[in-house]
Amino acid sequence: MAKLGDWIEPHPHGIYVRPADAWIDPSEPEPQALVTHGHADHARGGHGRVWATPETLAIMAARYGPQQGEPVAYGETIRLGEVEIGFVPAGHVLGSAQIVLDFRGERVVVSGDYKRRADPTCLPFEPVPCDIFVTEATFALPVFRHPDTGDEIDKLIARLHANPDRCVLVGAYALGKAQRVIAELRERGHAAPIFIHGALQRLCDLYEEHGVRLGELVPVAAAAKAAMAGHVVMCPPSALNDRWSRRLPDPITAMASGWMRVRQRARQKNVELPLILSDHADWDELTDTLTEIAPREVWVTHGREEALVHWCQQRQIKARALALVGFEDEDD
User: Fold this and answer.
1) Which ranges of 163-298 would DSSP assign to H, the alpha helix?
2) What are the TM regions of this chain, as residue ranges (predicted)?
3) Burial class (CB in 10 A: 0-12, 13-18, 19+), 158
4) Tens digit of pLDDT for each residue in 88-129?
5) Could you report the per-residue pLDDT of 49-83, keeping only the tens digit for each?
């Protein structure tokens, strides 16, 4: 009797779907790749053909140059070899998808990275019942329970209003997190111009091109120092303590990341205002998702694999950790 999912082969550099002769999120160039989303630990250039959502292909083109892309819209089904393949929203960043694989009566869902919180910049996660659910485990420890998003944004706005002679400099990853912070600020009624580091411009423009309204964004390079007092300034995390920040009016340093739950990380980065804002599911959201989907098996790709595997085993759910490499926290 064939073993469940024996047609899916985890390798250190990605997941090989044998009857489709295609790889999911390979970290090395492959002739055929299915890509869940545009972050660098899941997407790269150099593949022969790439199947992904139109938004992910646009992000890959912006970051890595032209792709041999085959766009697959949410809800659309394609066929490679003997495998039917669909893309459904993952709620992680613009264009992020879970890849649904159907082969000989078995269904495998490779979720990529996902979150369950509302996000004005992308479609929400769509649960898909399946036999095998391949899940991330970035924040798979009970200590990681993300606070309310609105409360974190309110902290940012309150600090801004309390210091009208200063700016609040928010470090946020260039793809997904920066645009989400801007959009969340807009949803809380913050209509003032937001100043951005040049490294964020291209992807903010791309989000706007795909219908995500970010309001007035002003390049820091085009602004006088005094004009930025009392305003939010956005930059990639690498620029938080860089010489670049000296052009700003006495910045209050903030960072938007799920890792800001860990005080030591905030101290290491000299963050004065930690904002716990993650694009990954927290512990409760991971376990609630597994309960909702009710797969026969759970495969855990990266992060705190042991805790999530243990949680599954306690509930008589067969689980295993996959030894994938190169999946880090570009987008935390």
Assistant:
1) 177-187, 198-209, 263-268, 283-293
2) none
3) exposed
4) 999 999 999 999 999 999 999 999 999 999 999 999 999 999
5) 999 999 999 999 999 998 899 999 999 999 999 99
* Length of the chain counted residue by residue: 332
The rounded radius of gyration (Å) of the Cα atoms in the chain is 20
Q: Beta strand pairing status for 232-235 and 194-196?
A: parallel
Instruction: Give the 3-state secondary structure of residue 155.
Output: helix
- Residue 3 main-chain phi, psi, to 5 deg: -80, 140
d(CA 257, CA 261) in angstroms, rounded, equals 8
Rounded to the nearest angstrom, the gap between the alpha carbon of residue 2 and the centroid of all alpha carbons in its chain is 35
- The Cα 324–Cα 73 span in angstroms is 27
User: Does position 332 have pLDDT exceeding 80, yes or no?
Assistant: no
Q: State the pLDDT at residue 266.
A: 83
d(CA 126, CA 98): 9
241: pLDDT confidence band, cut at 50, 70 and 90?
Answer: confident
CA distances from 90 to 37, 69, 127, 189, 302 (A): 9, 20, 9, 27, 16
Kindly list the distances between the CA atom of residue 41 and the CA atoms of 18, 38, 331, in Å, as whole numbers in the listed order: 22, 8, 9
Task: Count the alpha carbons within 13 Å of 114 in the hemisphere toward its beta carbon.
Answer: 28
pTM recorded for the entire structure: 0.95
Q: DSSP code of 138?
A: T
* Nearest partner of 39 among 286, 280, 247, judged by Cα: 280
Mean pLDDT estimate for the chain: 95
- Identity (one letter) of the amino acid at 154? D
Q: Which of 241, 323, 272, 261 is nearest to 14 (CA)?
A: 323
**By the 8 A CB rule, do 193 and 220 touch?**
no
Nearest Cα neighbor of 35 from 266, 49, 152, 20 is: 49
